[in-house]
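PROTEIN–LIGAND DATA SHEET

This sheet pairs a single protein chain with one bound small molecule, flavin mononucleotide, given as SMILES. Inputs appear in the order they were entered. The predicted three-dimensional arrangement of chain and ligand is reported afterwards as a token string under its own label.
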Amino acid sequence: MMGKLFRVSLFGESHGRGVGVLIEGCPPGLRIDEEYIARELSRRRPGARYTSPRREEDRPEILSGVFRGHTTGAPIVVFVANRDVDSSFYEEIRHTPRPGHADYTARVKYWGFNDYRGGGIFSGRITAGLVAAGAVAKRLLETHGVSVYSYITRIGPVKARVKPRDSEEFRRSIERSPVRCPDPDASRLMEEQLRKTMKEGDSLGGVVETTVFNLPPGLGDPPIDTLDGDLAKALFAIPGLKAVEFGAGFRLASMRGSEANDPWVLKDGRVLTETNNAGGINGGISNGMPLVFRVAFKPTSTIRKPQRTVNLRTGQPAVIVGRGRHDPCIAIRAVPVVEAVTSIVLADHLLRWASWETLRSKILGDV
Ligand SMILES: Cc1cc2nc3c(=O)[nH]c(=O)nc-3n(C[C@H](O)[C@H](O)[C@H](O)COP(=O)(O)O)c2cc1C
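PREDICTION REPORTED AS:
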């Protein structure tokens, strides 16, 4: 489960009846309907260029917790049925685990009882529930003007130059790009790389950056539930995600303190920092600057190029060739998922922060 006050659990498998999410602890009165959740889900859906050709309508059904277009305060369940299911490839590879995928570890952990069709719970499809919960979390964040933007900054060898801004225009520049990269030149080069790689039957990795604007200072519960720690843990629920760095991240290791430290400055009566190498977090607590982090996605493991594996039934070496419907670059479809997971964690911490804030004047009086 993710979260302490805003709690999210996932269920479902890739080729079972469907996937979905249970959200507990969401306050009443937030404006939510199936259309709104469907819109968010459509950003994650396969079928676009450079994503898996699996066609899923992704019609969310809200089974509880929403009445007449508003959350009721009761647990919310959103269910998304699976329709376009073809398990033939997975029957073929049942005993020859794909290198890089979870076929082998799932078989070991679940003694072979796991639903292996379509990757079961290890399919990217499981992230539909996260996107649905993220849609609800975003409504909560809107109450404090917090906005979350995720976008691609790298695919394979192509790096983008992005200057994030808190504006609808910036949001549109992400959505306009078929690879969700707001730098149009890099976006074109990324498309080229993807076309070439797909022709070769291979796949590419990528980096998704996230910037959050208007996050109040004070979110995060150290020493254990630090804001960066909770974000990192939740982000690692996204399959294929392999690294997280906040602010200047790994670059900090080669900097001096005098370069890395973000000087405190006063701007319009607010205490801010001049630079943002910390990515908006000090000591596990938001500091009022934009929250900035990057996550790396590995290249999709299911590829058409032949790869070595073993046949677990015969104990003999084997070769596997990917078939079926797969994303050439997970990172592209993961963009709305990263945005959703960020929103879920921030909604949880906003609720925790707000519970203290409401008591502040009662405890301190009018000081
Ligand atoms: C949105 C999304 C779509 C994905 N699509 C595929 C895919 O088409 N083929 C594939 O092999 N892996 C895909 N993955 C990644 C696998 O689910 C993941 O690599 C696998 O569960 C093993 O987990 P790990 O890579 O974190 O170790 C996708 C992941 C996400 C988030």
